[in-house]
Amino acid sequence: MTEANGGGAQEKSAESIIQIRGLNKWFGPQLHVLRDIDLDVKVGEKIVICGPSGSGKSTLIRCINRLEHHQKGSIIVDGTELTEDLKSIDEVRRDVGMVFQHFNLFPHLTILDNLILAPVWVKKEPKAKATETAMHYLERVKIPEQAHKYPGQLSGGQQQRVAIARALCMNPKIMLFDEPTSALDPEMISEVLDVMAELAREGMTMLVVTHEMGFASQVADCVIFMDEGSIVECSEPGKVEEFFKHPTNERTQKFFGQILHHI
Amino acid sequence: MDGISHRHPALHWLHVNLFSSPTNTILTLLAALLLWQLVPPALNWAVFEATFSGTDSDACKYVDEHGEKVDAPGACWTFVKIRWPQFLFGLWYTRNFDQAWRPVLAFVLALGIIAALALPMFSHKQRYQIAAGALVVYPFVAYALLNGAWLGLPEAKTADWGGLTLTLVLASLGIIAAFPLGVCLALARRSRMPVVKGYAVLWIEMFRGMPLITLLFIASVMLPYFFPIGTEIDKVVRAIIAITIFQSAYTAEAIRGGLSAVPRGQYEAAEALGFGFWKSTILITLPQALKISIPAIMNSFIQLFKDTSLVLIIGLLELLNIIQVAARSSQWKGYEAEGYIFAAATFFFFCYSMSLYSRGLERRLDTSLAARRAQQD
Ligand SMILES: Nc1ncnc2c1ncn2[C@@H]1O[C@H](COP(=O)(O)OP(=O)(O)OP(=O)(O)O)[C@@H](O)[C@H]1O
Ligand SMILES: [Mg+2]
After folding, report:
1. Which of A165, A187, B20, B268 is the most exposed place for a label (fewest CB within 10 A)?
2. How does this protein lie in the membrane (chain B) (predicted)?
3. ipTM value
């Protein structure tokens, strides 16, 4: 449907776009937050990561665009290995968009300026073209009429949709979502999840940290359960529902027991 | 009528605001008593019994029954009336009063620029362009006017500048020059590079821990040692260097406070979008930090404005000092109070204007306030 983001995705289907091997991360000398993580993400794949608080979900996806740096192991994103080298970081960030729990829109800029800032200053796009792209994505997330307002004038759900549009304006190959709906009032969650589900249908590669199990079973190709810095269990391809009902691991059972109980 | 009160609205206002409770009533009465004690005598001195006419101090004296000259009981505004050209423009411009239009024009131009920046018809971008242009061009224009030599007018050397004119030159140049320096120092102090950070910390702590008067003294006595022998450094330039250095430390701390108050998520969002340090700072975090630090920055500006009086130590006569000198002359001995009140009123006028301007700026930049306003509409 949109040449903007889906285009490159289908061609190299079976290939891994993210390859994580033996990833270890410590905060300070003591706190071991990621332990021997191996993960492969194929182009167009949607992965949902869940697990208890403090298990390292955020840290894992933040390592993928180098908001956190790792101490051991390797992360290769679209053929570029993440190292200290600033060039590799720039290259990876160009391919990876991120959506945060607290939206992190720039409050001093209008919605439109939020969307065109990075295309104009980072990608050096002409302003007219960036504005056109921005309006296109604002329509996709269904709030073109808010373009000239400031973030503070929008509801949480609208702000998060703007944040998604802002990431998409950079035409990323991969989108990372860190609990995109957990700061939202319940009645706004679905408007954000709908946008994400549509993005998924269009073939975007997505890593989503969320506890929205309805979203996971509808969209995810694979659900990963993390605890204490390790990947405890992965769902079999295409068997997400199955995984929720009958996880093999005891900790996973307990966790799903708790959260599914709440839903 | 369906109002809460059937009384006159003024009475209602009085009741609600001044006499709503016993404590409030007592405080109101106390305040009224205090005003009653203070205001009439002050008015008597400053207005009803004051002298406004005449051309010298004799106008403020009368001969008593013993045939001696005695000060009149009220204020002697004749002092200010006769000497105001000195107070505003310094001694040179008083002697060459036909040239006084030069500082006035320089001042009016500055006001024009400030007013243009506040006008709503300009976009953000145009405002930046005006501000940037003015910052580059205006100092030269002001110098050309005040000094006069470039324009073929009678030359007033910097050492001849004085009074309010000098106060404004010192304060505005100090403020303007200290601002970019302060931004750099604030960024340097947050840097992860130890050398850069070390220098910034040293600079800020050293000059913040020093009274301005010491710094002015050092600038006047020691600065010549840093330059080849025989280099004459202008006194006003020395003062501006000292003031700039001093002020940069305060501005830096105010801005650093703003930078730390910008939420971490803003830095992360900028990084995730691929912004490097400089672009992220200039486009995203610094504008937010500056907005947050407006009150603190303005506070230090106002402080500096008043501190300019300390340039007396290097022999410059700005507003306050020139009034003191005038009040020490044999003619006007004993009329310091009138001079000081004039100085106080002038300082207050400028400081309060700065305060109002900064509040207006805060309001204009407050995007969440815009949100609240929009919701009310
Ligand atoms: N910047 C940091 N410095 C030190 N420790 C950190 C930092 N960020 C996270 N941690 C610690 O790392 C561990 C993993 O944190 P992380 O945020 O990845 O967990 P999470 O699974 O995302 O949890 P949540 O569901 O609460 O978001 C936690 O113990 C946390 O306290
Ligand atoms: Mg988290």
Report:
1. A187
2. Multi-pass membrane protein
3. 0.90
Mean pLDDT of B189-204: 95
Could you tell me which of B283, B293, B258 has the C-alpha nearest to residue A109? Answer: B283
User: A56 C-alpha vs ligand 1 centroid, how far in Å?
Assistant: 6
- Least Cα distance to B251 among B189, B314, B311 occurs for B189
Regarding the beta carbon of A210 and ligand 1, being less than 6 Å apart is answered no
Q: Calculate how close chain A gets to B140, using CA atoms only, in Å.
A: 33
Helix axis angle for B163-189 and B286-307, nearest 10°, is 140
- Distance, CA of A109 to CA of A251 (rounded, Å): 45
Residue nearest to atom 1 of ligand 1 (CA): A27
Shortest alpha-carbon distance between residue A258 and chain B (Å): 30
Look-up: residue for tokens 């369906």? B2
Task: Give SS3 for A24.
Answer: strand
Positions of chain A with pLDDT under 50 = 1-13
- Comparing A13-22, A202-211, B22-31, B286-295, which segment has the lowest mean pLDDT? A13-22
CA B153 to chain centre: 29
| Secondary structure letter of residue B51 according to DSSP | B
Tokens of A181: 């709906």
**Neighbour-count burial for B250-274, b at 16+ CB within 10 Å, e otherwise:** bbbbbbbebbeebeeebbbbbbbbb
Mind listing the pLDDT tens digit for each residue in A147-206? 999 999 999 999 999 999 999 999 999 999 999 999 999 999 999 999 999 999 999 999
Q: What is the pTM of this model?
A: 0.85
Q: How many helices (H) and strands (E) does chain A have?
A: 10, 10
Strands A72-77 vs A16-27: parallel, antiparallel or unpaired: antiparallel
Beta bridge partners of A47: A207, A222
Task: Report CA(A244)–ligand 1 centroid distance (Å).
Answer: 24
Q: Which of A23, A24, A32, A33 to mutate to test the pocket of ligand 1 (most atoms within 8 A of CB)?
A: A33
Q: Which atom of ligand 1 is nearest to A60's Cα?
A: 18
User: Could A108 and B275 be called an inter-chain contact, meaning their C-beta atoms sit closer than 8 Å?
Assistant: no
- What are the tens digits of pLDDT across the range B100-124? 999 999 999 999 998 888 777 888 7
Per-residue pLDDT, A75 = 94
